[in-house]
Amino acid sequence: MTQDMQGPPSQAAASAAPVAPVAATYFDGKSSRAHAVTVSVAGKTAVVESLDGRELRRAPLSALRVSERVRRAPRLVTFDDGAFCEIHDHAALDALLAATGHREGWVARAQNSWKLVGMALAGLIVALLLGYYVLLPWTAAAVALSVPAAVEARLGEATLRSLDEGLLTASTLPAARQQQIRAAFAALSLPADPGHDYRLLFRQGGRLGANAIALPGGTIVITDELVALVGSGAGLLGVLAHEAGHVAGRHGLQQAVQASAIGAFTAYVFGDVSTLLAGVPAALLTLRYSRDHERAADAYAVDVMRRNRLPVTALADVLERLERHHRGDAAAGAKDSQAADEGSFFSTHPLTRERIEALRGAAATGR
């Protein structure tokens, strides 16, 4: 950036003593030849002279542009025809500029102040943290809630196809057992949620193990391993109510949008969600619910269990059983421990111990 060499007139500048000429290198803009010169100011005119005293050119101060000071880099005084003087002596040029009444802008002064640069950096870090922890979740929630129900359902179908093609296989759970669980879930009284039609699907979890996965649109996938581990009683219904809480809150979509922050921001600002949502199914396969989402889904499950007169402790018991099962697998030492951990219930539903304590507290207090 550059500024006019002539600044606002000042009484101090007008009465200041003459300033010594400044050594410079002059380029006339017509050839690459460098000329050793001095630059001085006479009234409101800049004068360029060779070292033997010959005047090479003069120009009004208002026609000159002075580059900003950047530490050790030379500064340029540019004429309107493209010719310029390159000056390395910053102190001498500063004195000459001060004599003309020239004053650098606050941006230029800030760039050369370590204190101001440090403050700007700290402000940027604070802004980024606020953006990540406050603005991004808020934006993701707004985008997720703005997705039409039909689009959300299609995203759920796309995610299910991805799961079936890469992670899950057909269920071996007897059809009668599947129907029993579906009937029990359908009989639950759930909070009003007109945008979702819930359905339960059963699959062998494979690497996902004992797990339940809520997909956009209302589909909840239950693995055979989860049914084998926790049974089909009140505890499993609590897990399904928890997953329904994720669906109702569109938590999966929110997490996927946060994972695509740049696309989410662009979609929110410009109103085009098509490009963003194309990558949502892949993001949903690796989502990890946030603390707030887990707490909200647990609160939803507690409400469902109470309105259906089911013991809240049953859900806490299931989580404890899953936790013990997970610890047992870890102690046994899986061949691919990283893959096993990534596929566990706890990789997608974290903070289980905290949740168990909160559920037992809710059961004890009735709140």
Automatic annotation (TrEMBL):
Binds 1 zinc ion per subunit. Signal peptide: none annotated. GO terms for molecular function: peptidase activity. Its cofactor is Zn(2+). Residues 177-361 form the Peptidase M48 domain. Keywords: Hydrolase, Membrane, Metal-binding, Metalloprotease, Protease, Transmembrane, Transmembrane helix, Zinc. Residues 22-100 form the DUF7092 domain. GO terms for biological process: proteolysis. It is an enzyme of class 3 (hydrolase). Its EC number is 3.4.-.-. The chain crosses the membrane at residues 116-135. Belongs to the peptidase M48 family. This is Beta-barrel assembly-enhancing protease. It comes from Cupriavidus respiraculi. The lineage of its organism: Bacteria, Pseudomonadati, Pseudomonadota, Betaproteobacteria, Burkholderiales.
